[in-house]
Amino acid sequence: MSRKHFLGTILFLLTAWVVQAQETERQYLSGTGLGNTVTWQFRVSEGRNSGRWSKIEVPSQWELQGFGEYTYGRWYKKPGVKNPSMEEGTYKRSFRIPRNWQGQNIRLWFDGVMTDTEVLVNGQSAGPVHQGGFYRFSYDVTELLKYGSSNQIEVRVKKHSDNRTVNAAERKADWWLFGGIYRPVWLEAKPATHIERLAVDARADGELKVEVHLQGTTGEESLSMEVAPISAKDAEHRPVKVTKEPVQLLTAHFDGISPWTPESPVLYRLTVSLLGKEGNIIHSMDTRIGFRTIDFRPRDGLYLNGTKLVMKGINRHSFHPDGGRTTNKELSIEDVKLIKEMNMNAVRSHYPPDEHFLDACDSLGLLYIDELAGWQNAYDTPTGTRLVREMLTRDVNHPCIVLWSNGNEGGWNTAIDSLFRTYDPQKRHVIHPWADFDELDTHHYPAYLTGVARFTNGYKVFMPAEFMHGQYDQGHGAGLEDFWARYTAHPLFAGGFMWAYSDEAVRRSDRGGALDSEDYNAPDGILGPFREKEGSYYSVREVWSPIHVEPLMITPSFRGDFRVSNRYLFTNLGACSMRWRVLRCTSPLNSDGEGEVVTVADGGAQAWRQVLDSGRVQLPSLVPGETGFARIDLPDNFFNGDILELEAYGADGESVCTRTFPIHYAKDYLKGELQLKGADAHPSGSQSAAASTDSQNITVSNCHVEETDTLITLHSSAITVSFRKSDATITSVTRNADGRIIPLKDGPVAVGMKMVLADLSARTENGDAVLCARYRGAADSIVWRLTPDGLLSMDAVLLNRASGGGGFDDAFTDTEVLNLGLTFSYPESECSGMRWMGRGPYRVWKNRIPGANYGVWQKDYNNTITGESTERLVYPEFKGYHANLYWATLQSPTAPFTVYAASDGIFLRVFTPEEPHGRQDGLNTMPDFPAGDISFLLDIPAIRCFKPISQHGPQSQPGIIRIKKGDEGLRLNLMFDFR
């Protein structure tokens, strides 16, 4: 768009808004949302602060303001509970309206009240009681007002409805039940002859149809319309004569429009003017529109502008801990941005959201499924008929809405399905979530191999409206890679929606502001209640990245070429960009304090990064669905780095995903660090007896071995390590310089296998002290080597023989393992934090490794229980499994130590995460952790996601071990620095 055209558009829009302000005026009687409220008088019938007049902020939920009682929607499942909290509240306030409003049509609007609402203006009823807590409704109060003087409004609200089906649909639901005027209240003034509302069908080819609903016309008026930045100028768009019918249809065709998509959400402003006999503007109304065509094709798919959609979606409640369901525009924009950061393109909820959330979806680009409430129970037909009208007349023009939804999980009334088409000129498809209905199967929580006659070998379009349930740390990213690869390979897959966006922990005003997620009922989010990012956030972001880097292993033969796939729906990869960075990761052996410190993960962790070089990746021009080669012009110092970082950016310049790949693998990395230190190149760290250690200036001499009846002790100038003769486990580690005990002990103990000591011997060799333990079972041997400067290496040979002597049954039996490796004890009370090189900063599970990137990370100790806390949570969690260890320093004010990996693919287990106290029936949410505290593992378990692990994909299944004669076995090589 040219500057002149752009300025002209701005001028037109400003002019349009002036006209609108002159013709339709709005006066708020409340605030606009969370953080912007107006004080009303209030009295509640029962519970806290009941029975007396007080003050309350509007909009709000009265429980969070200190009134009434809290109830969660599963109250009816609690023993001895017959009813939820059923208080009633009365609101009052006075207000003035301008004298010049007299003669106009005045409506009083409520954007949302829970639940039954009776309104009196100046002591007179404004109309029938409104029932239904999630919908916008209004009353014509023209004849009830005093113009230019004081008026009184009284609103009587029943938290529990007098309508049984409203309670069944809304109050017996899996969510918090609140009461009160929780969305804005305002007065709106229009001329007596006016446009009531518009219903638009704007097609991708430029065709535009507008239903104009009128009130008070005589038949002598006419209608005109304009679309900014396109104006209607030819004969087809000249004013159209109004008939006496209350609904008029305007049609037009516009050339050169840009269609709306979630990847390029182009919006226009439609202005419709009602003209008098002399051509004067009586009233005008405008609305934002997007030109786009949505159509559902049975046994084919859901199409947007002729492109088949695959929706990467999340289910979201309108919720915030400080407001309940009272939110604001800023929160809506933040949520849309966070959802898009996860590379999602679609949202669903169980009821109509705040309109400013739909506005944000329109302008920032998210597809939306708009749902009539009904959680496992439906509204009666008269109530449902009214609420469908209220929902659609508010939301019909939002281009983000691609489907309508009638209830959820059995909460649909089929008698009102046809009404959606009545109020929607676009005739968007209607779904029944979790049902196979009208050729679109929305089955909830499908298994990886879901069937028979459903998706896997079925013929219906498949779109699970809920899948990947995120209770506590389960779900979302766990197993998503498998599910998504399988689903997207099927031509009838239209996408899926995870449950859910954020933990619904409310700040309890009756508990001193403590957070409450109602035990296991509400901590289902991929974000915490204050939008804290959990580990799955980054996992989903990587798996759903529209710019996908194919698996890459960097070797000395790497010349800068790698495969990349375009997983967008509409965008050519040539419109996007990518940067590469070569990062150097210095180990504690050679730490010089250089590098940039970056705060990550909402302040709960930090990354150390030293960028050696950087540049732009040459991306190919690929249409959606294509794969090709991208290229890096490798700098001369490329192989001096340790990590290749690739950061992809969309056509809008926003970061899409960051992927990292090791340039050197563990053994070579450690070898290089030892060489820089001046040590022997052998990963054991062995060096000559004449070498110096560090700034402590300890005199280095050859090691020696001491043996007693029960112990074998390896001595160096810096460190003394004692092993039990009975099982070859460490009993103590002493730092000689100050006599400090490093309490890593009681290991190595076998995890996931049998290991029985058969023979133990010790010797000195080339100045080192060596302990050799041989085993029966799955382990062959573990050799410990203590160097004169105090580095202790461990070389474990596992699973290298067919007859394991008790390790595994025989040579050709496939044996399942969950954890496999070695474990030690270390007191949690001694630990203050951890700095490590590997994938981070979040912990991982076997089926949730994507999103964890290579780097040097720091996080302080915390005991976060994912999704459960009375206070704001700290992420990332400290305890758990960490992938691809290179080195880790366990920080402590008294007993720190560092361990280095000389084997690839080692998982570092750090302590055992605490189970949620409110978990269902005391059932554990996580698989069992190994014994001990610090473990070094070659395999770890997956975590379930709603369904049992057996119903997940291959990456979630237990590891299979098959030992055959001639196998070299597995090596688990570590080096400990206790100095």
Number of helices: 9
Shape assignment: elongated
Alpha-carbon distance between the two ends:
66 Å
Q: Let me know the number of strands.
A: 65
CATH superfamily grouping of the domain at 310-543: Glycosidases
List segments where confidence is low: pLDDT < 50 over at least 5 consecutive residues. Answer: 1-21, 231-236, 684-696
| CATH topology value of the domain at 310-543 | TIM Barrel
Oligomer: single chain
Catalytic activity: Hydrolysis of terminal non-reducing beta-D-galactose residues in beta-D-galactosides
GO molecular function, one term: carbohydrate binding
Cofactor: Ca(2+)
Keywords: Calcium, Glycosidase, Hydrolase, Signal
How does this structure look, described?
- This protein has 9 helices and 65 strands.
- Among the domains are: 25-190, Sandwich (Jelly Rolls), CATH 2.60.120; 310-543, TIM Barrel (Alpha-Beta Barrel); 547-664, Immunoglobulins (Immunoglobulin-like); 677-799, Distorted Sandwich (Beta-galactosidase, Chain A, domain 5), CATH 2.70.98.
- The chain is elongated.
- Strand 15 (194-202) and strand 16 (207-215) form a beta hairpin.
- Residues 1-21, 231-236 and 684-696 have low confidence and may be disordered.
- By secondary structure, the protein is mostly beta strands.
- The longest helix has 21 residues, at 3-23.
- Its EC number is 3.2.1.23.
- Pfam families: Glyco_hydro_2 (PF00703), Glyco_hydro_2_C (PF02836), Glyco_hydro_2_N (PF02837).
- It is an enzyme of class 3 (hydrolase).
- Monomer.
